[in-house]
Amino acid sequence: MTITRKSIAPLFRNATCGLVAILAAAASVPSAFAAAALTTGSVSGLPIPRFVSLKADRVNVRAGPNRDQDVRWVYTRVGMPVEITAEFENWRRIRDWEGAEGWVYHSLLSGKRTAVVVPKLNAELVPLYENADVESAVTAKLQAGVVGAIKSCSGTWCHFTGKNFDGWIRQDRLWGAYPNEKVD
To answer: Is residue 94 part of a domain?
Structure first.
């Protein structure tokens, strides 16, 4: 059998139609879902980016994804939220709430969700409410940089707890939950 351009043209036409169908189907999927489906870690299969927290009270942050790389700095606060932005083998590139990035070994990270209070103005105290409602009682006022655990988020409010506080905070006042993200 001789293969000619004319004999394989139908194959390309069918492949092109298939590709068009795939692209059309992808366009009909909500963009947040499509983005999440296309951005998963090559090692873990989990979404990239995603929030996690530091599991240890001493975490070396390295310039690259191996132990031979220089230690850029050391975190000394267990529970600090970080965002995983990339994966390479057993290493995760992370970013903190101030924008600093580096590589850490995966076993030093926890899936436990925590967050940092980030007011609009640095000197502002952020109210923590008894319920997910600005009309409910204020149970505490939190300073910038306060770290706590996220118990749940509705997309606009998060149940946020820590040492000597427990209540509801506006989700946009936390670094550790994405806008409109629901956390169970």
So the answer is: yes
